[in-house]
Amino acid sequence: MFSSTSRCSTRLGSLRFTGRSVDVILRTPRGQQRSVSRDVNFSCHTTSASKRCDRRDLLSRVFCTKSSARLQQVQSQHDTPPPAYQPPKSGFLSQLPPSVVPYAELVRLDKPVGTYYLFFPCLFSTLLAGIHATPITPPSTIVGTTMLFLTGALVMRGAGCTINDLWDRNLDPHVARTRLRPIARGAVTPKQAVIFTGGQLLTGLAVLLQFPFDCLYYGIPSLALVATYPLAKRVTYYPQFVLGLTFSWGAIMGFPALGVDLLSDSAALKAAACLYTSNIAWTVLYDMIYAHMDIKDDVKAGIKSIALAHERNTKTVLTGLAAVQVALLGAAGAAVGAGPLFYIGSCGSAVATLGAMIWRVKLKEVGNCWWWFRHGCWFTGGGIAFGLFGDYLARLLGWYDEKKQKQTGKQSLQA
Questions:
Q1: Cα 268 from Cα 388, distance rounded (Å)
Q2: How far apart are alpha carbons 17 and 5 in whole angstroms?
Q3: Fewer beta carbons within 10 Å, N or C terminal of the chain?
């Protein structure tokens, strides 16, 4: 037996041998040490070789016992069930009948930011088409078309959310942010959700029929994208690109909605193509920030996203997307001959707001990502819309014509 004091160390701690007593010194997460004294009975033969008994076996037995105890303690601390669902006690949803609340939550009525993101490309294309149209589109038509687009965005965004939750009903329970969604928690059955989706799509069709008939040819193909996006996250790390194709579709719709034939008007077709691609870049940008909210749960659930693919260089990718968005936005304006108010208001505000968001967003903080996702909609989308409206108003009031007349007069005087 050991009669002198000796010491062995490992990652978990160390053993101090004193005769038949063993002091177990454990390292705690804060760097503190905790000593536990234990009596250990073991025997060794008295030969000189046997005096060098293998202490590693003893060390392993002691630490396995202590590590198992510590592991059970940690597991017991994390076995507490997550908070149960609580019906809304404030806001719009709290005023609805209890039977309606799950469906309102299903279409995200309490989180309308997605509707705004779907609506803004429609507004951009309406104002850009209004600038391009000859004669210029009257304000009443612009307002009426905008209201129809807002209604359609509300309906179709809700349908998209329902379809998404149907596809993800087996994944949502494993993600902290989505585990209490109506289908995931069983408040709405898949069959009820399918019937509800059918009603939403019929409502969306009714809204689409209020536009010129040609809009049907442009609007109906977008339904394939609405149904495809939830599947993309299972097969590619870039489902945000598919979301961009879907959410940016309104950047095309404003032109046929105001009677502009894209197939016979090359300038309008170029403007619509540039605006559509610009909005795809914008969608990927803001949804990449949004994806950072779920990045840890996505790894566990096996969900793919661009945030996982570019976790180490996210801000570099965001900067590139912002540059693409602004460049294509400027190209869309150039295609229809937009004026300085567009470039200063729309392109300038996009550079300022996107730059501030990329610089200041804290990708490791869920709350900060949500704040920029929610407010960035209005910072960037509102700025672009404001610039387009200013350019439309300048053309409507003839400000650009007066400027051209003054420049022509000066040139004639100099001649």
A1: 15
A2: 5
A3: C
* pTM across the whole model: 0.76
Nearest to residue 241, comparing CAs of 291, 306, 299?
306
Q: What percent of the chain has pLDDT over 70?
A: 77
Q: Taking the CB of residue 6, how many other CB atoms lie within 10 A of it?
A: 10
Omega within 30 of 0 (cis) for the link into 139: no
Beta bridge partners, 15, equal 8, 24
Res. 2: pLDDT tops 50 = no
CA–CA distances in Å: residue 28 to residues 11, 14, 15, 25, 73: 11, 12, 15, 10, 13
